[in-house]
Each structure stands twice: as C-alpha cells, then as structure tokens.
Design goal:
The chain is 18% helix and 38% strand. It is α+β, with helices and mostly antiparallel strands and 125 residues long. It has a single domain, classed as 2,3-Dihydroxybiphenyl 1,2-Dioxygenase, domain 1 (Roll), CATH 3.10.180.10. The chain is globular, with a radius of gyration of 15 Å. InterPro entries: Anthracycline_SecMetBiosynth (IPR052164), Glyas_Bleomycin-R_OHBP_Dase (IPR029068), Glyoxalase_6 (IPR041581), VOC_core (IPR037523).
Length: 125
C-alpha cells in the first residue's frame, strides 16, 4: 500500500495572516490568492497536483490538539486504508474524517505532538 505520495500543503500560524501574505507577495513574489494562500502547481508527473502554502490566524483551533504553530498536509493514495494501518501500528489517529468535494481528510499526531493532515485528493486530481 502506498502511504504518502507528496506534500499537499504547509500551514502555519501568523499574528496577521493578511499582512504576512502581503509581505510574501511583495518580497518573494508569491501569487497569493483571495483566500489567503498560494497553490503551487506541480510541473512533473502530476500536472493537476498542487501544494498549498497558507498562513492561518494565530488563534486558529484547526491545528488542535497540537500546540505547534504549523501543520503539514500530506497527499495519500488511500486515506481509509492508511488510517487503519496507522491505528494497527499504534499511532494516535484522530477519529474524525472529513469527506467533501475537496477530497478526504484525516489526522494523525506524531510522537512529538504535531498534528499531521492526511489528504486523499478527489479522483482525477
């Protein structure tokens, strides 16, 4: 079974996400979109693939239960199979799974308490 197939996104907390995004736009040339982040398009074997860069407000609860100021989103091939394997291996897997038009999302906590988001993109992306 394939596990991680790539990095789907880098998410981090910021005191002022809009001002920080503006700095990245001005000084590093990032094409920050209206929703506040950047979708880097892959140029290699997956032309429809993207990696997201996105600052979140510093008081977001989205990274909980982790207290880390970041969260990495990993692309996966089969979310439900991977979550089952991680549970069988004794990993701390959060019970919640979200499924929407954006794909399937699950979460696991690493040994240092960092929350990792696992994302199975929708078919064809």
């Amino acid at each position: 079974m394939k596990r991680v197939t790539g990095i789907g996104g880098i998410f981090f907390k910021a005191r002022d996400p809009q001002a920080l995004a503006a700095w990245y736009r001005q000084h590093l040339g990032l094409a920050v979109e209206d929703w506040g982040g950047v979708a880097f398009k892959w140029a290699d074997d997956s032309p429809s693939g993207t990696t997201i860069w996105s600052p979140f407000k510093d008081d977001t609860g989205y990274f909980a239960p982790s207290t880390a100021p970041f969260m990495i989103n990993f692309r996966v091939a089969d979310l439900h199979a991977l979550l089952a394997a991680l549970r069988a291996e004794g990993c701390q897997v959060l019970e919640k799974v979200d499924e929407s038009e954006y794909g399937k999302f699950g979460w696991v906590i690493d040994p240092e308490g960092n929350k990792l988001e696992l994302w199975e993109p929708p078919a064809g992306s």
